[in-house]
Amino acid sequence: MKKNFTKLVCVRIACFCIFSAMGQETKPDVRMIERKDIPQGEVTLRAYSEYFWPDSVVNFNSNGEPTSKVYYDKENRTGTSMWLENGSWKISEPWETEGIHWWIGKVDVEDFNGEPLFIYPQLDGETNFVWNTIFSYEHTVKVYDAKGNLIAIEFRRKDVPDYFHEHRISYNERNDPVLIELYVQKSLWGKIQYEYNDYGYMTLHERYRYVNNNWVIDDYKQTAEYDEQGRPVADYFFVAGESASLNQWVLSRYSFYYYSDGTSNEQIAAPSPTVYINGQTLFLQAANAEQIAIYSITGNKLYETTIQAGLNTINAANLPQGILIVKGSSGWVKKLIAK
User: Fold this and answer.
1) 3-state SS assignment for residue 18
2) DSSP state for residue 271 in the 8-state scheme
3) Is the pLDDT of residue 319 over 70?
4) Which of 48, 169, 218, 274 could form a disulfide with 105 if both were Cys (CB 3.0 to 4.6 A apart)?
């Protein structure tokens, strides 16, 4: 269910904090925060967020099954929720809302109950990132560029003044953040990346951490699709899951948006399956049932079967090593490397 943005201390935020506490391998670098503050220029920066008013939103689980629905009334500025309970749909009382909250804009730090609240763009406006729930941090130091973009933030431990974290932010020509680098004691250990379409709307938000001289996926990523008016029509949420060691994302949930002016996203198909090999088993997580076939790099068909919605497993012991091509009857194609 989509809700208005609320500043919450996320349970999962320990993902970044704990990695630093565990002493994972990091990439050394020099400090950016030691530069003097750059005067802010007279530049119009993008707002923190945007709100959209779809007629309805339908949320699905990774198996392609609807889990909840939200109907919006822009005139009365209310939303009504529906959810499945014991096989039947339940409906809520109308609640006040400003529509769908799309957390798209600036990077910043705010005070939240005496602790710094690190704000970063994200497609899902239900949660936000508080720097740490383990240690207490003192007032932050900020550096801005000439356009007024926040390009560096420093957090220091109150109990250990020499222990600090630093975030560095890079922007595109529209002043939208494209990269947030996370440093601990001058060492790079994580990053958040963004991509945008030609109209400036965010299409990708994903997170990585630096382990054993390599970047590996971390926590989750989000993607989105838009109509010609720039309104969201679909968003997808992926998690690292059990495939984290293989650097593979696994679909967790997704949502379709519908608008009362007749604009529909029915042309947008469910996301293509997540496919990966672990040992002698091929895992394929799909939103719908369909036919799939596995080919060698030379085009020879090696295997064919029908998959069901949800997680499918295929014995890969007899498949050759090297590059494999997996094709679905709905039109998607995936490339795998069997070792």
Assistant:
1) helix
2) P
3) yes
4) 48
Q: Distance between CA atoms of 167 and 191, rounded to whole angstroms? A: 9
- DSSP annotation of 243: G
Rounded CA separation 39/147 (Å): 8
Residue boundaries of the structural domains of the chain: 11-271, 272-339
pLDDT over threshold 50, residue 1 = no
**The domain 272-339 is classified under which CATH number: 3.40.50.1000, 2.60.40.3080, 3.40.109.10, 3.40.50.720?**
2.60.40.3080
DSSP line for 19-65: HHHTT---EE---STTSPPPPPPS--PPPSEEEE--SEEEEEETTS-
221, two tokens? 């990523």
Residue 41: predicted pLDDT: 52
**Which class for 298: exposed (0-12), middle (13-18), buried (19 or more C-beta within 10 A)?**
exposed
Token pair listed for 295: 């080919």
132-148 pLDDT, tens digit per residue, is: 434 566 667 888 888 88
Strand partners, 208: 191, 217
> What is the Cα–Cα distance from 170 to 203, expressed in whole angstroms?
17
Q: Which of 128, 213, 131, 126 is nearest to 166 (CA)?
A: 131
d(CA 300, CA 280): 20
For the chain, how many residues are written?
A: 339
Q: Are 247 and 276 within 8 A, CB to CB?
A: no
Residue entry with tokens 């990966």: 276
Q: What does pLDDT average to over the chain? A: 76
- Token code pair at residue 242: 């059990």
| Full DSSP string of 130-160 | ES-SSS-B---EEEE-TTS-EEEEEEEBSS-
Neighbours of 239 (CB within 10 A): 17
Q: Alpha-carbon distance 95 to 90, whole Å?
A: 15
Residue 148 tokens read as: 């007024």
Amino acid present at 280:
Q
In which band, very low, low, confident or very high, does the pLDDT at 166 lie, cut at 50, 70 and 90? Answer: confident
> CA-to-CA distance for 101 and 110, rounded, in angstroms?
19
CA-nearest of 331, 258, 224 to 70 is: 258
